[in-house]
């Protein structure tokens, strides 16, 4: 997944009852913090259990992608494909259309 996001946002994929943390190819990280989920859950003071509960609530148990704003403790269901993640990020004011695509 080629997505550049701030360090407080994390992308998760829900499939067959399991959540997987997705690390994008690009990662905006000016502080040089590790991109792993363990570091982020400690930094933003959210337990793995609470994280799973919030992701389940946001998705209503549906398969697909979610974005977790660990800083503000907000979680968003995106949909089942990667493009839905891009769309949700843009709706949150993060990212823009690639001006080179579609030319």
List keywords for this structure.
alpha+beta; 3 helices; 4 strands; four-stranded antiparallel β-sheet
Large-scale geometry: globular
Radius of gyration: 14 Å
Number of domains: 1
Q: In percent, how helical is the residue content?
A: 25-40%
Along the chain, the helix and strand elements come as: EEHHEEH
Q: Runs with pLDDT <50, length 5+?
A: none
Report the end-to-end length measured between terminal Cα atoms: 22 Å
Mean pLDDT: 87
Q: Largest sheet at a glance? A: 4 strands, antiparallel
Strand sequence of the main sheet, in spatial order?
2-1-3-4
Provide the β-strand percentage band. 15-25%
Task: Summarize the topology.
Elements (H helix, E strand, L loop, with lengths): L8 E7 L2 E5 L14 H7 L4 H12 L4 E6 L4 E6 L2 H10 L12
Antiparallel strand pairs: 1-2, 1-3, 3-4
Describe the structure.
The structure is a single chain. By secondary structure, the protein is of the alpha+beta class. It has one domain. The protein is built from three helices and four strands, in the order ββααββα. The chain has helices spanning 37-43, 48-59, 82-91, and strands at 9-15, 18-22, 64-69, 74-79. A hairpin with a 2-residue loop joins strand 1 and strand 2. The chain is globular and about 40 Å long. It starts with 8 loop residues before the first strand and ends in a 12-residue tail after the last helix. The model has no long low-confidence stretch (mean pLDDT 87).
Short description:
The protein has helices at about 35-45, 50-60, 80-90, and strands at about 10-15, 20, 65-70, 75-80.
